[in-house]
Batch of 4 targets.
Target 1
Amino acid sequence: MKAWVLQGGFGLSHLHWTDVPIPTPGPHQILVRLHAASLNYRDILIVEGAYNPRLALPRILGSDGAGEVVAVGSQVQRFRPGERVVGCFMQSWIDGPLTDEAARSTLGADRDGTFAEYVLLEQDAALAIPPGYSFVQAATWPCAALTAWNALVSAGCGPGQTVLLLGTGGVSLFGLQLAKAYKARVLLLSGQETKRQRAEALGADATANYRTLPEWDRWVREQTGGRGADLILEVGGAGTLERSLRAIRRGGTIALIGVLAGRGTIDPMLILMKAVRLQGIFVGSRRQLEEMSRFMVQHALVPVIDRCYPWTELPTALECLRKGEHFGKIVLEIIPQGG
Ligand SMILES: NC(=O)c1ccc[n+]([C@@H]2O[C@H](COP(=O)([O-])OP(=O)(O)OC[C@H]3O[C@@H](n4cnc5c(N)ncnc54)[C@H](OP(=O)(O)O)[C@@H]3O)[C@@H](O)[C@H]2O)c1
């Protein structure tokens, strides 16, 4: 089969479109012919060596993928050939709290991933795609959507609460859709005016531009009667955390998710004096993915897909993601290469 493999080192020059053997399912595994895979900022970090400098290579990249079961292992009960499935980001996190084993079972880093014609999944770490959702749509769920879901649900998001979102990437736009479905009030920051408008059209209650309004924490306090947001989905990391700490209400929750804004310094005084809850989020379990998919169906939530690329154009798609040109998700359509 064809696959995108990182081999021989880090950097785009080491990302190869190459032939590898189709894997054989073990007793508890299913073999899935992929139809779509979505990109995450993580994929850029992995290629650059910033995600895990000790990553074992060669590795097929990609954590998110949806396709059709084509073969099953001898002990597989949950799926049959022909079923449409989406894989879990972590292949060993089924339910309960995150464990060391689960954290080391991620697709596209610890195990071969979804930028390939076929992927092996544990039978317990896949989910049937609900009717009405396409492969392309389902392929956006495993990482970005589940991360936003986990952050919102862990913080008890609900009516009357104010949620702050940073940017209009995959995690933040799922955060917007899910938080609105929970009847929360959503404030959103974007560095681009047109994206701000699009976020408002999607339901954001108020938006601001973090480039023209670098002191956006003041804007958040103004928007909340001086109180601050109840929950922030922090995708910026150290570069934005200081401001998020100024924008959060006393006793509020900051879900630590991403690293988009680079380095920065943090004043621990703000954390303790505001009694802020800092909650690290690492995607989520299969149980959470199931709960999220039911919620998506119930509220008829359709993923925001900026564009699809033929999967042969992965380097171009990654460059688009790196430049932040997108609004929502970027998806690869996986077309069989034959032979
Ligand atoms: N912890 C986890 O489990 C987990 C899971 C998923 C993702 N992540 C991390 O979360 C982050 C977001 O992931 P993603 O897939 O949603 O990324 P993405 O789709 O690439 O989102 C990028 C967008 O974020 C916005 N942005 C960039 N720099 C910003 C800044 N300094 N301040 C505010 N917004 C900024 C921009 O939106 P505008 O153009 O609108 O400004 C940009 O288009 C990444 O660091 C990723 O690695 C972590």
Note: The chain has a mean pLDDT of 97.
Target 2
Amino acid sequence: MNEMFPAVRMRRLRKLKLIRETLLSTDDLILPLFIDENIEGKNKKPISSMPGQYRFSIEGAVKEVLEARSMGIKSVLLFGIPEQASKDEKGSEAFNKEGVIQRAVRRIKKDVENVVIITDLCLCEYTSHGHCGLVENGSVLNDPTLEVLGKIAVSQAEAGADIVAPSGMMDGMVKAIREKLDEESFSEIAIMSYAAKYNSALYGPFREAADSGYKFGDRSSYQLDFSNAREALREVELDIKEGADIVMVKPAIFHLDIISKVRARFDVPLAAYNVSGEYSMITAASEKGYLNREEVMMEGLTAIKRAGADLIITYFAKEVARVLEQE
Ligand SMILES: [Zn+2]
């Protein structure tokens, strides 16, 4: 038998660097963008907890999307930050026709060709209490929230979104949104569901970025406990049955096992969110000289793809595109 050393030598091919099983491509990348109604003109405002990342005005966002498109990135995920004064208990600004996201989507569609626009679909950026659903007596209500999510979906679809991305982990949200969209003749609009979203400490920097911190409690009544894997698979299965076109695992690098399990069990397209905390950890460590930013970035993102993700939402998207261009 020639199946072992010395006949078999794994290093023969390795040194040629010929075989690479997983290759990142700009096609895999989705760039998240924060669009802030409080910023005027073409300005952008740095996010201090995520060095190198910005909140953009609508004009600024158009410019950013144009740049991303020119680098080969096909898709963006938009988060809206409304005027502080417009926030209320019910998050009404989220489905305002003239809301920040609705206006941004219309502008981007008008000015940028061939870009896939995904809109975050949640209440937390728009409610005065900062939770992802309607609140009564300190608890987040499920079923009444679904109706609001349907309204937001329709208003985003009317503005021109290609995909809506419900991120609030309410039970039945995908079904409610699908029904509402179909009822309003938006059956072409796809749903990317945050199906397995963990209640993660890694979202810290995002809350500053999206101004979506909550005033009381936490999100453990709706987001997954990070100890649980089987529960994540049930969430994914339910969302697929409710009509999700793409399912998502979030965060990505800390939960690669979940990405891999979802990939093995289901055949729907799978997205993974390389979250703010993952971005900021790599950024901070590389600023201190502990790690090489580019190397760790490429290793982390390749691992997400190797685990089974088809799409990767990442703040590194433009940087990765630059690296890929050089290769
Ligand atoms: Zn939310």
Note: The radius of gyration is 20 Å.
Target 3
Amino acid sequence: MDKKLKGIFSGYTGHASEIIPILQDIQDVYGYLPEHALEEVAGFTGVSKTHVYGVATFYAQFRFKPKGRKHIMVCTGTACHVSGAEQVLDALERHLGIGEGDVTEDMEYSLESVGCIGCCSLAPCAMVNDEVVSRIKPSRVSKIFPKKS
Ligand code: FES
């Protein structure tokens, strides 16, 4: 077991009721839930890996892949939805060759959809790391998010 996991587990007793906070801590540290960490959580809490995986997949907050250097969160809240968020998301998926929750092979971009990010007057919009990208047109996606190769 690596040091990071040991550090996380040291704050818990190993009871099965602690699975969710443990998973949250793991995601805070790694940015996602690595496969080996899920196995260690199962061992630590005395439940099956399938159970841990079932808990993790139930909650949308958990990621199973690392984030790219540029993490794109496309807003699909009401204002963005009526302004074409689905078309923006489709265009991004086609352009980057990945689906929601995935990361590009070169680790440059990762993609997910989120609820309202509080910039409704700029719809359709997205957050890229900490910055808002506003009024995204599907036809401009390849210019806004250039691929390296
Ligand atoms: S609905 Fe997209 S920012 Fe509010």
Note: DSSP finds seven helices and four strands in the chain.
Target 4
Amino acid sequence: MKRKALIVGAGIGGLTTAVRLLSKGYEVQIFEKESSVGGRINYIKTNGYHFDLTASVLMLPNDFKEIFTWAGQDYRDYLQFVKLDPYYRVNYADGSRHDFSTDFPEFISLLESFSKKDSLGYLKFLGDAYGKYLLANKNFLNQSFTDTGDFFNPATLIEALKIKAFSTTYNYISKYIKNEKLKQFVCFQALYIGISPYQSSNVYTLLPTVSQLYGLWYLKGGMYSFVKALQKLISRLGGTIETGTRVEEILIKDNKAIGLKTDKGVAKGAVVVCNADFPYAMQKLVKTKQAKGAYTAKKLKKMKYSCSAFIMYLGLNKKYEDLLVHNLYFNDDFKRNIEAPFRGKLPEKPSLYIYCPSRIDAGMAPPGKESLNVTVRVPNLYFKNIKWDRKTIYSLRKNVIKTLRRIKGLADIEENIVYESCLTPVDLLLNFNSHYGTAFGLSHTLTQTNYFRPQVKAENIDNLYFTGSSIHPGNGISMVLISSKLAVKKIISDQK
Ligand SMILES: Cc1cc2nc3c(=O)[nH]c(=O)nc-3n(C[C@H](O)[C@H](O)[C@H](O)COP(=O)(O)OP(=O)(O)OC[C@H]3O[C@@H](n4cnc5c(N)ncnc54)[C@H](O)[C@@H]3O)c2cc1C
């Protein structure tokens, strides 16, 4: 008889865990509280405009393809990847604009336009950061640390020291690059995992490094096409997804997970995998002291959380030729405003990430029009001083529009908005049970990475596993894909 696995949540972590377990012969049932699957990877579709709800930057397409290989399928039957080049257009507050390309001669001539010294420094930075990425990939990202000995052994500790993680992103890159505009480009990308480049470890300079060396990609139909492909795969493999079903408790007996209590009844299984955000799950779904282990209410309160995001979705009445798919705007007083969300403040002069998929994908907006996401990093709900009411949203919106209008070619943007909505930290909390409404779950501080981050297997409970942003190796779609692989490998080895 097939072993049955029950999964809490149909985010990327839950869906890909399902694909992997189904391919290994498990019977799988997913319980998702929302009416649609995908979790934070979701969408808005209205009057011909199609918006990706959150994620849009696709790095490392091989991680996306691997799940299809795991299931014995050809990814080309499900997905169409498009390489983006230039991969970013960066607009600076002084009106200058630079396109970053993965084409080497283009990239060098851009760097040399700043200075020969910065050009050399940037290349040295890329070389060193690439070395760290290779080390991290081999020794840390692709393995679990479920036992103390997995991490605290001489070989692993030596490799960890080689990564030299202790200086901040800003201090680390300042050793290589002097030009502030180039530094801003590297620093801004730390925000993609919700950490401050002025406070956090330089390890995450692997994001700008990976983008430059491997390129950024776009999925035709937007990021949600990945979710649709996973949904199709799960159905082909015989899995079931119960949407609109809220899990209320992970049932535990004699230190073993035995099933789930949902708002519709009880389901029993040999394995339970929780994809709901880990701190939320420890607080609300895991009820016994033994099962919570180290993750008591006190510890969860003390842990550090990533920032959140405010996103405006704009349906525009005309084409904007000045935009690429990924655009950045770096405002005046960059450092103070980038640090604001980590100090519980809204940025007064926000720097923006602007995503315009309709530049290359006709399916994302009606003919002759554009769909735009504009993202600003904001404090998570741990900071109680900001009330996400109409007044706050109105004033932030006004500030974002004022900032957008400063970008070359976007001066008339407000007059051309025909659809508008937004997402706040409260939406992330209420819709996806993201603890404190964070965008990226537990923060990537050094004391919350590798061995020190929650792992794929529960500490004290058999048959209970975790996958998702707040689990090792971390957040971002590629990392969550790895966490589902680590969870399933552990399940298989434990059940032998
Ligand atoms: C604004 C923003 C921008 C981002 N940009 C990028 C990007 O450009 N590139 C990138 O790679 N990543 C990006 N990310 C990160 C990426 O979206 C996440 O890392 C990833 O989607 C998290 O997937 P997950 O499976 O861990 O969790 P989730 O997507 O949160 O899935 C958890 C699921 O569990 C469900 N659930 C929770 N509680 C229950 C319950 N009690 N019962 C039943 N179901 C429950 C939730 O509804 C949800 O569907 C971004 C995230 C945000 C918020």
Note: The two ends are 15 Å apart (CA to CA).
